[in-house]
Specification:
α3 (36-79) packs across α7 (162-168) and α7 runs antiparallel to α8. The N and C termini lie far apart (74 Å). Helices cover 70% and strands 0% of the residues. The protein is built from 8 helices and no strands. The chain has helices at residues 2-13, 27-32, 36-79, 84-91, 102-122, 142-158, 162-168, 174-197.
Length: 199
């Protein structure tokens, strides 16, 4: 009986310390979780803020990915790695016309990558993700050696490797587009067909 009287009085006073949306039910009902309007409003605000934070993080990750991709695309273009003639000149060591200039490109890439890897090993997790997505397979097996050999043959024949080939699409040349289409077809073949044939 006293609880009913107190609840009725509080409902009449309509507690001014509470926002207007929480005045629909009694104070005791709100505390007991029986005020659906009060609970729904709090849940809606929590969900909205959670989705907003998640959307902001996803947008930031997208911007960082676009920035990293732009830097990567600019690097091979500036260094000449999208030029098949320079690639074949670098790989053709025995011809007497060897072009060693790409050694500086590879060396510069290593100098940039090593500090990044050292920093990554000191971090518990990335800034914009829950964990680092690192390769799980570290063993040198027959499939790795075979894939490396196929990659080297394709690189020497076409003068492209995957990253610079995508950057070279900006030139609008038909051979580049044909190479990228063939590369994508090979990736699909490996991911969709090869697992069914090999254990």
């Amino acid at each position: 009986m006293p609880e009913i009287v107190v609840a009725a009085l509080l409902n009449r006073i309509r507690l001014h310390l509470r926002p207007r949306h929480s005045r629909r039910g009694t104070f005791l009902e709100a505390l007991a979780g029986r005020d659906r309007h009060f609970s729904h409003h709090r849940r809606r605000r929590r969900d909205r803020h959670g989705r907003g934070a998640m959307n902001r993080q996803s947008f930031t990750r997208l911007l960082v990915a676009l920035l990293a991709g732009a830097i990567f695309g600019f690097g091979p273009s500036l260094s000449g790695m999208i030029d098949p003639a320079r690639i074949t000149g670098f790989l053709d060591i025995a011809s007497g016309r060897w072009d060693p200039s790409l050694l500086f490109v590879l060396g510069g890439a290593v100098l940039v990558a090593v500090p990044g890897i050292m920093l990554q090993r000191r971090m518990a997790k990335p800034v914009l993700d829950a964990r680092f997505h690192l390769p799980e397979k570290t063993a040198i097996d027959a499939r790795l050696l075979a894939g490396s050999a196929i990659f080297g043959i394709g690189w020497g024949l076409a003068g492209f490797c995957p990253g610079p080939a995508v950057s070279a699409l900006s030139t609008g040349l038909a051979p580049v587009a044909l190479f990228v289409c063939a590369m994508v077809a090979g990736m699909i073949l490996h991911d969709r067909v090869l697992p069914r044939l090999l254990p």
